[in-house]
Amino acid sequence: MEQVPPKPCSLSALPEGSEVLRLPRCEQVALQSLFDNDSDLYLAFRDACIEQFVHDFQLAAALLAAQQDRAAFSRLAHSLKGVLNTLGHTEISPLAHALQLEAARADWTELQRLWLELRARMVAAFGLDALA
């Protein structure tokens, strides 16, 4: 099956100062390839994800403190892996995947290390300084 090349990105046609133009290149690629250049949809999805990250960060902290629910930690990591890929952050999603795999082993020290690394990368990627 022949792969159809993505449509040319129309980001340059956006007005000066558009929020989309300030997105990292990886997110612009996701906007183009996964959201068919629908910037309103992408930005609404991105905003909803960032709002959810607050809850995800709290859940991860609680799970790490309790050190007893590997399945919940695995589900959280799996969700983050998918969301990060959808938002275009394919350079960060492997950390979420590693976290998901580590959750099956329940090495809580390693889970903590991986979580802190993933969290720091997410904070930097999405400008979540207020959540840090």
From TrEMBL:
Sequence positions bearing Phosphohistidine: 78
Keyword hit for Transferase: yes
Keywords: Kinase, Phosphoprotein, Transferase, Two-component regulatory system
GO biological process, one term: phosphorelay signal transduction system
Any Pfam family the entry gives: Hpt
Gene Ontology MF, one: protein kinase activity
UniProt domain HPt: residue ranges: 38-132
Signal peptide: none
UniProt keyword annotation of Endoplasmic reticulum present: no
Protein name in the entry: Chemotaxis protein histidine kinase and related kinase
Organism: Serpentinimonas maccroryi
